[in-house]
Amino acid sequence: MKFASLKSSSSAKQRSRPLQKPRSPLEVTEILQHIFSYLDEYNMRMSVIHVCRRWYYMNQHIVMRELVWHTTSTPEDFSKFLVKLPGAHRLRWFSQFRGATRNENTPHWEQFVSAVERNCRELQQNPSLQETGAGNSSGKRESNIKSGNTNGPQWGRTYLRELELNGYIQMSKALGDLLPFSNALTRLMISTYFETSVFMDQILRQCHHLLILRFSSLQKGNIRILSPWIPIELQHDSKQPTIFPLRSLTLQGAFVPQSDLEDLLSMTPRLYELKLINLFSENASNPQYNRSRLIEHIETLHLPLTSFHLSHDVWGLMLDEVQEPFMPLKNQLLEWGLWGQELKPSICKDLCLYPNYITSLEIVSNRWTYGHTTKEGLHTFLCVSPHLLHLKVPQMFFALQRLDLHRVDDIPLIDHRLRFNFRYSPPQRNLSIEPGVWACRRLKTLHMGFHRHGDVSIGAAVHGRILFGYLSKVCPDLEDLQIRMSDIDVSLQGGLCLLSRLHSLQRLVIAISATHQKYKKVDLEWMADHPQPGPWQRLRAFSWLEREVVKSGRTHKDSVVTSSRSPERPNSTPSKEHAEERLKVDLMRLGLIEDVGMVIEDMAAVKNFRCWPLLQGISVYRELDYGGELEMDVARLRPGKTIHRLKSRHLV
């Protein structure tokens, strides 16, 4: 009886004890941190920190907190900027004012430098301030996470890790002011309109953790990078060779001593991106750059380069020197860069020979590029390159007729030879332009200008339906779309809403050169964060479509064009070899008002419709109209997502 009683009592205790679930691996802080270490910043920002409070708190010291300042902003905005500055990891500064007296010497710049200096000194004196707020050390943060105490993390101070200066920046003064407090910088990017000088040895001496370095000269300015590049105390240290952690180096419009550049490359064994764009020569008739020697030096170093660009002012080059600038490294490069003036027919032909190697192509220029380069080279390459992911040709204008698969735009098709400015070049009417479907269906980045060869520029509604319909169907995975065109019809008939099909879009920039434009705000309502039901939804009615078709004189013509025009041209389309059957069916409505109607129907069918859920930045503006009505109306629809005008100009 005694043992039975004890057994009964023990069983009762076991029944009263709550069952404990096995602990999930995701509850272990160390395991979580290891998993998070494999994720990039974008996924951390867009997904991870929104899962739960714990994950949000754990990753505040990892996710970059960005701060943007533009010199046209208000004094109230600048006060808020200074308050947030101690907690910012990434800083972007845009200077729109001309002249040094209205740039770095302004009170804004002086207060900014003082705030950076003060924050740096306070962190050095009291390291516990960093990242987690006053009195919260990293050890205490770990203790709070493990104990479940995640009530309201305080954003504390941090060192500046990424710095970007754009516009009218005197680099020598800017770096002189900021370098003493930039020991933690991993990224330094400066784009300037001024002619200025830079001391590379000071940068390498102060910024020990620098991974990405970019100096870019805008328009007619140039940057002189003075010798020596390697700090004097590191030049003769034979016992312990100096290794810089640099991963990416970009110099555009700069005067570069080649011997110093070669010395630096010898000390950067982890460099994967090297872009030397339009290097400046003091004497065009006697250039100081030896292209062959530099490429041979790079080959001997066995650098893990995946992206490479080498070009300098073409007036000092022999023709045979620019024929194949990238061929010696073709087997290891995934990202190829070309200078616009180097685009010869032989290079365009070479590009088409390596469609399986190139995943990224960038063509940089300081002049507009048209004509046979676009006709025979780039378009053919795009039609045979299924693996291309990133295409940046911001200074190249692509003929819209190459996208008009069914000749919906019936204005006479014409072409003309290469011109620096097509607006002032009389076109030739004896060359036809054949359309085609690009093979790069997984394209994620597209920076390009579009124009229409001939006497009529882009601006009609049909032009927008062709362009936006083509991009949204042929390249549905676009994440970064930046285009420049002469004009755009932002009404629903113009087809801008066709871009709502780009569900992965993160950045959209459309620059327009037209000075005047009429539109209704209701036509833009579809792109709002939370669009309100309004007149735009009623436009999906078939009666509206019918009226527009009759008005444009295409009651029967469009259907004939889409069903029969294409098969009659057997030699016109590289698309037949690459386009899937489903895509061909989708493209049958390209350029038609019917395509717009179907998109609006799809919008209305979705409850709480919201286009571009991943959008991070947007700017639709007229280049000659600062703070114009169109730009402001788009900004109101996506608050907090606007890309500053000066930045937009650098992007496209």
From TrEMBL:
InterPro entries: F-box-like_dom_sf, F-box_dom, LRR_dom_sf. Residues 29-58 form the F-box domain. Residues 1-13 have a biased composition (Low complexity). It comes from the Eukaryota. It holds the Pfam family F-box-like. Residues 126-138, 560-574 have a biased composition (Polar residues). Residues 1-23, 126-153, 555-580 are annotated as: Disordered. This is F-box domain-containing protein. It comes from Mortierella alpina (Oleaginous fungus).
